[in-house]
Amino acid sequence: MKESPQDVVTAPYGTWSSPLSAAEVAAGAAPIFDAAFRGDEIFYSTKVPAENSRTGLMRTSLSHPGLSEQVLPAEFNIRSAVHEYGGGAWALDPRSEVIYFVNAPDQRIWQIIPGRSPHALTPDTSGRIRYGDLHMTPWGLLCVREDCRSTQRERAIVLITRHGTTNVLSRRAHFMAWPRLSPDGSTLAFIGWEHPNMPWDATTLWLIDVRTPATPIRAKLSGEEEHAGQRLSLQQPEFSSDSSLILGSDHDGRWALYSLDFSPVADTEAVREPGVQPLYPELGISDLRPVLDTGAEIGGALWQLGARWYLRDAEEIWVHSQSATATLVRTPASAKGSGGFEEVNSTGETFGSLELHDLGRTHLLLTAKSSDRTGVLYAVDRATGLYSEIARERLDAHHDYYTHPYATELGGVPVVINPPHNPRFAALDRELPPFLVSIHGGPTGQATPEMAARTSYFTSRGIGVLEVNYGGSTGFGRRWRERLEGQWGIVDVDDTVAAVAGLVEAGLADPKRIAITGASSGGWTVLSALASTDVFACGTSYFGVTDLMRFVVDTHDFEAHYIDGLVGRWPDAHDEYITRSPVRRVTEISVPVAVMQGDRDPIVPPTQAKDFVDALDYAGVEYIYRLYKGESHGFVRAETIIDSLESEFGFYVDVFGIPRSRRHV
User: Fold this and answer.
1) What are φ and ψ of residue 68, in 5° steps?
2) pTM, rounded to two decimals
3) Cα angle vertex 469, ends 12, 522, to 5°?
4) Do 571 and 548 contact (CB within 8 A), yes or no?
């Protein structure tokens, strides 16, 4: 219900009362991860906050989207742990009613027919063999398998038949993603990469002949070897015929779509003879033919398997195009390299982000977030372009209290500004608001203008939020990402300070009441900024990296060499590892620090937080410390989210000197 003008109260920033509670932030979150069509039916996976935030599977229909049912029993939780971050954890069988999914506790693949009990397809290994990036083919379930039974992780592309027989198709790379089989089943395509690369740095396209157990290489395009002085991040290969692909590449400065033709299968003796590897062509950039370049990114950082930035069939290609904001575009499948495309958006909203899920005969499935509403699963009519709402990620009672963010630039840095907003309150004359500077993780993440409950928790109480897309962020091309190479803890801090200076210069914030917060790698930037600048009154780190030397020893395989590119290779960069680590710089911190950490975090282990807090204590730096039992890298339990959010806000109130006694009801 909207407030009438006479209800508006003039009060200092930070003292505004808000019905948007921490409990509502925690309980209302039900993000949608994946969605797929089966005829008129729509299946989608989503968090179930009331059931310990497990990920369940819902079924609804295109004709009656308001009616939905839970497919999985409450004891099952969909989540892959491949690369720790998972992704691609379920798939539909288009030839039957069967649904395949990875169950979080045991990491086995299970299968279920709606209305019946699930049963396991793969053996019980106590979670030591994991599966992800599930993709159904006429020959069985194609996926990435990760074997954790020894200290050396072993991965393979495997094909699992409907009866549970596992066939290994390739072990050609240490990391693998997007396995696909050609329409005739002869060729396997996938993306692979090796340490020290991350998948947004450099990847290789592998084409494997799977007609014989020898699985010889048919061709490959290496992005890990320099082409004219640069590496390539190749993404999402999809077959358009038995001997051609469409895939993403960023060799021209940003991810765009290209086609690639390769030689048809040759029925030769060299291929048939066991143990003999025939000669294969090494493909190059010159073999890539333009399909679509929107001027923005058609791609992103592959933290989770199964990501899709385009969907196609014989008629059309639908694309998620991302810059400061997101756009859905389509182009005829036959219009290769013509450059022609159209934007499709009947909502009238500016989307902050999109996620593409599935392309059906008449509709497209996607989730979108904008500055005017939280995440929605839409079905987009392919003929008319009309968006139909299927499900919402949040059902909030206090929508009017949400801030409406907008993207802009400050100090030459792309940012998102979330102004203080509360329909019941107005600020005092000439008072400048306190601001919280939010640092995204990754550091390849991206801040986009999206209406968000967590951000609005602060803005509805009179604290603005500035989100910074420092160098290293995705969405702005390869050159912007590469600004952070070797400069982590320097460029990210400099860009953040430049953005804050622009915010203050524009008269939007009180320079004496600015805090900084971030999670994971964002926590690292928070602590680095507190140690090297005097811009911030305090800061909060959520499971942030504090010690580079410990991180490279303790972290998991996927990120074991991530620091090589961000700081430098060990031991050559020994001095940088020491001098940049926040745990070694606590004497340079002169403002209060809040540290939030889960005790089961495999990515940034809790020892990082504990050592840092001990150093703060020894140096006499004021701090608060919360260690949450059972939490990993990203908090999911409602009680944890509530306590950490209320503690963080109370921390800022105390540091900013906002009188608690003046809180309004």
Assistant:
1) -140, 155
2) 0.92
3) 80
4) no
